[in-house]
Amino acid sequence: MPATLRSAGRGVLYVLNVVGSVVRAWRPAVGGIAEAFHARFTDHAYPMHVHDTWTLLLVDEGAVRYGLDRHEHGAIVRTVTLLPPRVAHDGRSATPHGFRKRVLYLDTTLLDESLTGRAVDGPEIADPVLRERIHLLHETLRLPGEELEAESRVEFVAERLRGHLRSAPVEPRRDRRLALRLRELLDERVTAGVSLREAAGMLHAHPVHLVRAFGVEFGIAPHQYLVTRRVDRARRLLLAGEAPHAVAAATGFYDQAHLTRHFKRVVGTTPARFAA
């Protein structure tokens, strides 16, 4: 039964491999996400249990049968499943071939427990846009140094979930002054960076409204703006003769690979080739 337990930049990572099961879990450094959990099970069956977080489930292969509040439900590849905190549920494969799933455990700062009743009544959500957003969030969580992007993605996932759990949609509004204040903050913190929740607290705005106002005003997401500012600084340092690994540290990137990934995306070549 090979297993690893190590400290990583995104929290404690646990990987477990046993016959018929592969489990990988970690604590992302992203506000609102208590745990990310990826698993492949062949014959494991969950007993009745509860979590103190919201369980946001994608099934990527197979199907899952589960009981929630004394009613039977099914989670399939096409849908998103949302289980509320402190409501008992179990789970098992609906086929002999098992299932593969990705789960995010979201705390109540993202989704209020007052929405529990609606979630119990309708835990399966058929929404392709929401499913794609959750998939992209999972992909972003796998990349070190992309915490600001992940924060933006999780806030928009939570907003769409709230839209499914309430009756009346909230209309977005433009806020040029707020967008300008966020741009000033990002300009002041190009190297040090700032989390979305920290920025929202400093500017007294909801994270979703903050990201949306910035995008409407400037045509770019806050995390993309910050990355391009860092790439601009990296260009100048590379042309001044600094080594790529030193440039990465000096411009706020997680490591040289993080710099290279974004530099190539923005400039069209690697930092080393650019410098040469």
- Given this structure, which CATH class of the largest domain is correct? Mainly Beta
Oligomer: single chain
CA-to-CA gap between the ends? 48 Å
SSE-based structural type: alpha+beta
Keywords: DNA-binding, Transcription, Transcription regulation
Pfam families: AraC_binding, HTH_18
Protein name: AraC family transcriptional regulator
Organism: Glycomyces paridis
Plain-language structure description:
This protein is an alpha+beta fold and 276 residues long. The chain has three domains: 161 residues, Jelly Rolls; 49 residues; 52 residues, Homeodomain-like (Arc Repressor Mutant, subunit A, Orthogonal Bundle), CATH 1.10.10. Helices cover 41% and strands 25% of the residues. It contains ten helices and twelve strands. It has an eight-stranded antiparallel beta sheet with strand order 1-2-3-4-11-6-9-12. It has a four-stranded antiparallel beta sheet with strand order 5-10-7-8, with no helix packed on it. A hairpin with a 2-residue loop joins strand 2 and strand 3. The longest helix has 19 residues. The protein starts with a strand and ends with a helix.
Output the keywords.
276 residues, alpha+beta, Jelly Rolls, Arc Repressor Mutant, subunit A, 3 domains, 8-stranded antiparallel β-sheet, 4-stranded antiparallel β-sheet, 10 helices, disordered N terminus
Topology readout:
Elements (H helix, E strand, L loop, with lengths): L2 E6 L2 E8 L2 E6 L6 E9 L4 E4 L4 E8 L2 E5 L2 E5 L4 E4 L5 E5 L5 E8 L9 H6 L2 E2 L2 H14 L5 H19 L10 H13 L7 H8 L3 H12 L3 H18 L4 H7 L5 H12 L3 H5 L1
Antiparallel strand pairs: 1-2, 2-3, 3-4, 4-11, 5-10, 6-9, 6-11, 7-8, 7-10, 9-12
GO molecular function, one term: sequence-specific DNA binding
Keywords: DNA-binding, Transcription, Transcription regulation
InterPro entries: AraC-bd (IPR003313), AraC_XylS_family_regulators (IPR050204), Homeodomain-like_sf (IPR009057), HTH-like (IPR037923), HTH_AraC (IPR018060)
